[in-house]
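Amino Acid Chain and Its Fold in Token Form
===========================================
What this section holds: a protein sequence and its matching fold, both as plain text.
Structure line: whole-number tokens from a learned vocabulary of local backbone shapes, matched to residues.
Purpose: to set a sequence beside its fold so the mapping can be learned.
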Amino acid sequence: MAEVALYDTTLRDGAQMEGVSFSVHDKLRIAERLDGVGVHYIEGGWPGSNPKDEEFFAQAKNLRLANATLVAFGSTRRPNGSVENDANLRALLESGAPVVTLVGKASEMQASEVLEVPLEENLAMIRESVAYLRAEGRRVFFDAEHFFDGYAANPEYALQCARAAAEAGAECVVLCDTNGGTLPVDVFAAVSAVRKALDCPVGIHCHNDADVAVANTIAAVQAGATQAQGTINGYGERCGNANLLSVIPNMKLKLGIDVVTDEQMSRLTELHRFTSELANMPRNRYQPYVGESAFAHKGGLHVSGMAKTEASYQHVNPEAVGNAKHVVISELAGRGNIAAKLQEAGLTAEVPTSHLPGLLQLVKARENEGFQYEGAEASFRLLVERLLPRYRSPFDLVDFMVVMEHGRRPGKWSGGDALSEATVKIAVNGEVRHTAAEGNGPVNALDLAIRKGLLEFYPRLADVELTDYKVRVVPQGPGGTGAVVRVLVESTDGERVWATVGASTNIVEASWQALADSLEYALLDK
């Protein structure tokens, strides 16, 4: 199969996703990461449309890219105008990008009803714009917008649009499923037909409105497309674009096309997380290949099979994309799940095999009470540690009390605010400390009071911060206000991040359990 070039449009098409807004600095950092994973072309933006993209290209000249070539994006000349006087084409040239991608209509309906120009004028816009940029020394790709819808309605005219770009000097004609509604079988047929009709290479650009953008991209490559466009995490307008983090391993591991090296592909999970962070978008833990749950195993039957051969329930080695397998502990777990988790924690030697059934039953009983360990592995670790003869808890709760006042305390808080105060008695090696603290809520007050009592004995707890706090109503508990609630706490000491869980009909009690587990886990040997 022919070589395929990767074309990333995260910085332009991906930035059109609702909720995504990259700064110039963000775009420069992402471009460096894209270069690091072996992307061949990085579309930096549309320099004729906004100052941010113009600034990006000005600063991008200082980037030292080892693998990628920067691309500027823009449209064909305006209807009934000239290429020499077109501001958009001038901005593309001034960007300094060595490659330009021009977008033009490849649909009879789009040309006549959206652009409102004669069909021949649309062809002239394509021909003249491509030829002008080629004459100015630029490499040109042509994005044939709405190609598949246009091809379905009037294949002859859609091919005329593609041929106009190719004959004018376009290096690659990229067929765009702009509305994202074409199915893979139709993509394969259309790409095959275009390849026979054109002398230049063909590319593919898919949106995900029918949830088949990745499948369509792979179908196009199988039909002979040699440029695959997409975005990181599938970011893009409406439902997004083809996700390159799936396209890349699919091509390399399934089709045998070495679009990137093994080492570059092992950075995909890191790139997924990095881009999500800069986009300020939550990571999709269920995203194929790179999501946190992409190689998670929860069912006991699955984990049992995995213990014998990892290929039994994994289609690829997770390390190939920089990810890792993950065994989940829950009420669906079998002894294999428990054994695998003990191995991950380095406790296999300390927990005899004969103890696994009892530990499994304990987990299931606790989950029946409302606990859930699949998102709180630190609490599971402590559950096991507390069963070991050598383990001694670093502290023990004597009692605690939390009160909340609502009113006015002169000099401290204003009317309408609520003040929480917690008192805690904690024993460390037989010494009891009785502390109190005020907080902006019962959980905050409780957390501060616990720390007051423990910092004297364990100064390193000063580095521990609570980073997230979630409350869930457990469906199997009693209904109404007496329902069981589950509290999940995420903490960090600057090096590690861990989660702990508590469950009770009393939200403060559940919070105490999760907070105490968090601090106790922080005191385990790293």
User: Anything to note?
Assistant: The chain has a mean pLDDT of 88. The two ends are 49 Å apart (CA to CA).
